From TrEMBL:
GO molecular function: DNA binding
Family label: Belongs to the CdaR family.
Coiled coil location: none
This protein's UniProt keywords: DNA-binding
Taxonomic superkingdom: Bacteria
Protein name from the UniProt record: DNA-binding transcriptional regulator, PucR family
Lipid metabolism in keyword set: no
Positions of the PucR C-terminal helix-turn-helix domain: 336-389
Length: 396
């Protein structure tokens, strides 16, 4: 495809427009990320914190590549974006079994960028001829950049797929995917291929990081710490995620992981159905931690099940917390801890004091302070206060 540079005055406007785009980068990325993850065939990516974070990094890489190229050499054809982030994103999509249809997000992003560029163009000039050239340039340049990038990504998809069709991890991933999808693969055959017994009790875990500061070694060390002396089934789901199945619930209080690594656990369950169910529970835990931006590094399904159910509509959950807790929501930590301990000990102040390693009178004073802050006294609103406090445990 031939490429003609615009005239020098238009190139100067293009450079200015690209500089504006880079200055507004955060706003562009927020809109692009939301639009792309809502797009067709992106549901599986949007709900997965690792894949969603990878998609956002790819979007950033694309925008920076196009805008920076037009600052350096305005109006020239921008080469395809095959940097580390897009390539890593493709590898992860292929490992998860997602298809090329996920690349539709590029087209969604293209429409957003064209609209953003049109706004910039109208701010740069009111001359009809210059406007026409600026808009024509954007359609040609952005279209060619996306076409070239999608073509390069397609080629990468095929290479990754070829690389992932052999080897132990590929076989494990294939067998586990079949089992999770409900395939009638004979149990003994599956066990032989996995080197893992499917008839006993299982606790599924997901170890992941959506922060590029953590590498595979951090994830593997976390998986090893979680497994302890047991021999788990471990599957490399993607470059930033490990799926595990353990024979029993681990003692998470003894597990130390890198700051950006997180662990989600299902509940113990038996047999092949338990193998599946515990994994889906771990997935639910992972997604809830991501959805609520919770700071906890390790969480179990038992801990988050209630909060997961009552926060499906985050805005309504936030209003519920504010109505229920009133000023208690922002009370000192010792007051909140006293209320939580009191409720956990079935409204018994002595047992709450023992749990907190403090004197009963101290707990009573803190409960009295809580009543002053609550819209409705605690004794008249125990259930709702308990639920609201549980929500605040998992939200920033």
């Amino acid at each position: 495809m031939s490429w003609t540079l615009p005239p020098a005055p238009i190139r100067a406007l293009i450079r200015t427009g690209a500089e504006i785009a880079l200055a507004e980068l955060d706003d562009w990325l927020a809109e692009l990320g939301e639009a792309a993850l809502r797009g067709p065939n992106m549901a599986a990516v949007a709900v997965d914190p690792v894949l969603a974070a990878s998609a956002r990094r790819t979007i950033r890489s694309n925008v920076v590549q196009w805008a920076s190229a037009n600052v350096r050499d305005p109006g020239a054809r921008v080469p395809a974006d095959v940097a580390d982030d897009p390539v890593r994103a493709v590898r992860d999509l292929v490992r998860r079994g997602l298809t090329e249809s996920s690349l539709d997000a590029y087209r969604v992003g293209q429409a957003v960028v064209l609209r953003r560029w049109s706004t910039i163009a109208f701010s740069l000039t009111s001359d009809p001829g210059e406007l026409r050239e600026l808009l024509d340039f954007a359609h040609r340049s952005i279209g060619a950049f996306i076409d070239d990038t999608v073509e390069a990504v397609f080629a990468q998809v095929h290479r990754e797929r070829a690389n992932l069709t052999s080897g132990t991890q590929a076989e494990r991933r294939e067998v586990v995917t079949l089992l999770l999808d409900g395939s009638r693969l004979p149990r003994r055959r599956a066990e032989a291929r996995l080197g893992y017994r499917l008839s006993g009790e299982h606790v599924a875990a997901i170890v992941w990081s959506d922060d590029r500061t953590s590498g595979p070694d951090d994830l593997d060390r976390a998986a090893e710490a979680l497994a302890g002396e047991s021999r788990p089934l471990t599957v490399v789901a993607d470059s930033a995620t490990r799926w595990l199945w353990l024979p029993a619930m681990p003692d998470t209080s003894r597990v130390t992981v890198a700051p950006s690594v997180r662990i989600a656990l299902g509940t113990p369950a038996s047999g092949l159905d338990g193998f599946r169910r515990s994994h889906w529970e771990a997935l639910t835990t992972q997604r809830m931690l991501a959805r609520l931006s919770a700071s906890r590094q390790i969480a179990t399904h038992d801990e988050i099940e209630l909060v997961s159910l009552v926060t499906r509509e985050p805005e309504r959950a936030e209003r519920f917390v504010k109505r229920t807790l009133g000023d208690l929501e922002h009370a000192p930590a010792d007051v909140l801890d006293a209320v939580r301990a009191y409720l956990a000990e079935e409204c018994n102040a002595s047992r709450a004091a023992a749990r907190l390693f403090t004197h009963r009178n101290t707990v009573v004073r803190r409960l009295a302070r809580a009543d002053e802050l609550l819209p409705i006294p605690l004794a008249d609103n125990v259930l709702r206060v308990g639920v609201a406090l549980e929500i605040t445990r998992w939200t920033p």
